[in-house]
Amino acid sequence: MSGLSISRRGLLYGASALGASAALTACGAKTGSGTSSDAGAKADTSGSTVKVGLLNSLSGTMAISEVTVHNSLLLAVKEINASGGVLGKKLKPISQDGASDWPTFAEKAEALIKDDKVVATFGCWTSASRKAVKPVFERYKSLLFYPVQYEGLEESPYIFYIGATTNQQIVPALDYLKKQGLTRLYLVGSDYVFPRTANKIIKAYAEAKGMKVVGEDYAPLGSTEFSTIVNKVKGAGADAVFNTLNGDSNVAFFKEYKSAGLTAKSLPVLSVSIAEEEVKSIGTQYLEGQLTAWNYYETTPGAANKKFVAAYQAAYGKDKPTSDPMEAAYISLYLWKEMVEKAGSFDVAKVKAASDGITFDAPEGTVTVDGASQHVYKTARIGKVGSDGLIEEVWNSGKPIKPDPYLKGYSWASALS
Amino acid sequence: MTVVLNQSFTGISIGAVLLLIALGLTLTFGQMGVINMAHGEFIMAGAYTTYVLQKSISSAGLSLLVALPLAFLVAGAMGALLEWLLIRRLYTRPLDTLLVTWGVSLMLQQLARDVFGAPNVQTAAPDLLTGNISAGGVTFANNRLFILGLALLCVLGLTLVLRFTPLGRRIRAVVQNRDLAEVSGIATGRVDRVTFFIGSGLAGVAGVALTLVGPIGPTMGTNYIVDAFLVVVVGGIGQLRGAVITAFALGVLQSVLEYSTTVSVAKVGVLVAIVAFLQWRPQGLYTLRTRSLA
Question: What residue stretch is flagged as signal peptide (chain A) (predicted)?
Fold first, then answer.
């Protein structure tokens, strides 16, 4: 019996030892990046090829979304190489897996800049991962192209924000809901920086424009238990749910939503992180009729989009959808190429100086880089999930909206920044 | 009132999930004293079994029904193999068992990543289980009712096996006094393996049930392993009834706290309650009384 019996204290010691070792690794990573010098971090442009870094989560809870962005980046690299490369040099993509873990992102970003000497890096999805790598790119004065919509209130001199900022996605989405008479909102989000900041903006908007936030809940990233949150949503008397959940928590949330008897008709959900790829993996039957806010859909008309969709499906399979972050990732490489060619150099300072006014005939329509904020003019589009899993546009802003990451042009947002 | 009833059902359904994931552990940790950190990966194995079956059997309902016994066998076989290869050599060294099984857990996660790909996957639930039943303003989600039924069925089955079969008698004998059982002619090694087979198999069944509420991924087991240990420790090591009561109590507590506060605060609240409870009753809800001197 003595050999078999196990004391609780023994278990606790064992468990805390495991926890401590995990904490030590995390600290180790941090100190490592903190003390390293900038020497040797200069991008290598001497050969006939230059390296570009692709930094996405290829595993973990965010992989559902980020793998598609990675594929899209690889497609753009292939196309650019086929048409002669950039300044006569072919691009060599170096992929690093951020593994849905923020310290890992910082570590891998540093490896790309220091060891691989990349000329620019493309990637990140969650704002938490972007915030984790931001000091790395700033310290080494290297460029990151970030392809996803985000919460605004940021302008790093070493990041180009190719996805929408709040006044190109969340604010138009609120305008749309208000116009539909859906004024009582329930906010559901993942518990990290993007949903919390986005909801702060939504609350400021609601207060100024006579809308009402009737409830607000956050679930840890990767959480799969939504029965209580859905119950709260049900009892709150809301007109619509504003959903800022990220990753596959959405799967659990929408399964629960349907099980609880809620539908797009009885209580519509407007999501800002669910695009075509997520619709497919969550299951169309759970999402049909629900709303999304983006700048691009696979169904967006135009020759540039036809070409993009055809090229993507030729490379990755007929049944693969294209989505907004994928499109933004794809154009981020082309925008960088235009900047480099206008600057005539891979030098970061020269590329930045050349960025203002760069335009590109993108699948979402013509986009223009705003050099001052390093964001992009984009058209806002509200869409509805159809029975085929594609998203049909139900409203758009008519013309590209000037990026305003600090919402300076909106009086109700004055208290935010 | 309907809110209270709805919320009670939510609490019970969270409790049912907790019970299912902890049930196998009451055997392997509770009865045998093995801290098996790879228990969560047996849950994952069960979930992936459902996923693979659904690829070959297109009917979601049929594949789910076939998945239940098959996942039990798959996860059970993995558990028995683990016991035979590693754990039986470490029965006298519980902390080494913890480290070894943690290593196995990491290896199994990587294996799943290599075989099924890193992104999480989903299964389609049968139509019958995506709807709900409404009674008096209370909504009972069908998938939750199914999980509740499954959990209760597993508890019933396990109780019957432990109480009324020769195998159950042998398991109880080994738990109560290993040396005495051995000198009475019970092949304790074989009993250990069978116990581990059943405990791990139950984790596989839990994995099948979890595909109805969330995504399937290589790391899904790690989300549940801590909760499972909490249920067993609070319930009292080696006590089935303790685990049942604890699972439902924690489920209800979690959902009530979550309703009145937020998800994070509720998690903290549950942990504080557990710590306080263990201060008061360090041996858990129920204890096993033996006359063993050890």
Answer: 1-22
Rounded to whole angstroms, what are the CA distances from A222 to A89, A129, A327, B179? 41, 15, 25, 46
Instruction: Specify the pTM.
Output: 0.80
User: Can you tell me which residue has the tokens 């800049």?
Assistant: A113
Query: Which of these, A253, A248, A333, A335, lies nearest to A290 by C-alpha position?
Result: A253
% helix, strand, coil for chain B, step of 5: 75, 5, 20
Angle at B114 between CA B109 and CA B120, to 5 degrees: 70
Choices 3.30.499.10, 3.40.30.10, 3.40.50.2300, 1.10.1740.10: CATH for A167-295+381-413:
3.40.50.2300
Per residue in A126-148, pLDDT (tens digit) is: 898 999 999 999 999 999 999 99
- Convert the pLDDT of each residue in A269-284 to its tens digit: 999 989 898 888 788 8
Query: What's the mean pLDDT when you consider all of chain A?
Result: 88
> Among candidates A273, A269, A258, which has minimal Cα distance to A185?
A269
Q: Could B219 and A283 be called an inter-chain contact, meaning their C-beta atoms sit closer than 8 Å?
A: no
Using CB atoms, pick whichever of A6, A64, A251 lies closest to residue B214.
Answer: A251
pLDDT category of residue A85 using cuts at 50, 70 and 90: very high
- The predicted complex's ipTM stands at 0.78
Asked if A223 is an interface residue toward chain B (Cβ–Cβ < 8 A), one would say yes
Chain A hits for B292, CB-CB cut-off 8 Å, are: 1
Q: Tell me what pLDDT residue A381 has.
A: 96
Cβ <8 Å between B259 and A218: no
List, in sequence order, every residue forming a beta bridge with B132; answer none if it has no partner.
B141
> Do residues A90 and A79 lie in contact, with contact meaning Cβ atoms separated by under 8 Å?
no
